[in-house]
Amino acid sequence: MWFKFLFIIVAALLSSSVAYAENAYNWDRFNANLALGYLNAEMKEYVYDPDSGRKISELDWDINRATILRGEISYALPPYLTIGVGGWTNIPTLDSNRLDDYDWDHPGQSSPTDHSWHPNTKLFHAHALDLNLKGWVLTKQHYRFAMMAGYEYSSINMQFRGGSYFL
């Protein structure tokens, strides 16, 4: 779904650049990157009692060695602007994920009353999309400095099955 969105944005940017002025599109200003990598992540989810404010539950999600494909394209608009679109998505593989669930059933306790762990935790999808505009404020022969503004969206969906429970 987001690949369609990314393609539409890129097509709109390229077509608007070409429509701006005759021969305005220059391949020297275009940059594209594609990379393969992996994702390790740790997420924590907390639940608090609305009346007392005490913690009653904590979920610790771990993503280990999830394979990702990352891509980015950018186009330089002279003299000092670059517009970019990038993102990444996971590729289904045999990654190793885990969920630990801790619960505090009694007020005033410092350690959890219940602990369950779920090594059979599946990563359904993980992806991100980044739209950005860079304004180059300093350009030298061996380095550049830019101010950047943009928007980033990310989403991760996981599910666990089975597991063990400890009181």
Structure description:
11% of the residues lie in helices and 62% in strands. It is mainly β. The protein has one domain: Lipocalin, CATH 2.40.128. Strands 1, 2, 3, 4, 5, 6, 7 and 8 form an 8-stranded antiparallel beta sheet that branches. A hairpin with a 3-residue loop joins strand 2 and strand 3 (81-90). The protein is elongated.
Short synopsis of the structure:
The chain is mainly beta. The protein has one helix spanning 2-20, and strands spanning 30-48, 55-77, 81-90, 96-103, 114-118, 121-139, 144-160, 164-166. It has one domain (2-120, 137-166): Lipocalin (Beta Barrel), CATH 2.40.128.90.
Topology, element by element:
Blueprint: H1 2-20, E1 30-48, E2 55-77, E3 81-90, E4 96-103, E5 114-118, E6 121-139, E7 144-160, E8 164-166
Antiparallel strand pairs: 1-2, 2-3, 2-4, 3-6, 4-5, 5-8, 6-7
Q: Just name the CATH architecture.
A: Beta Barrel
The DSSP helix count reads 1
| Total beta strands | 8
SS-derived structural category: mainly beta
Low-pLDDT stretches are: 1-23
Measured as a percent range, the helix fraction is 10-25%
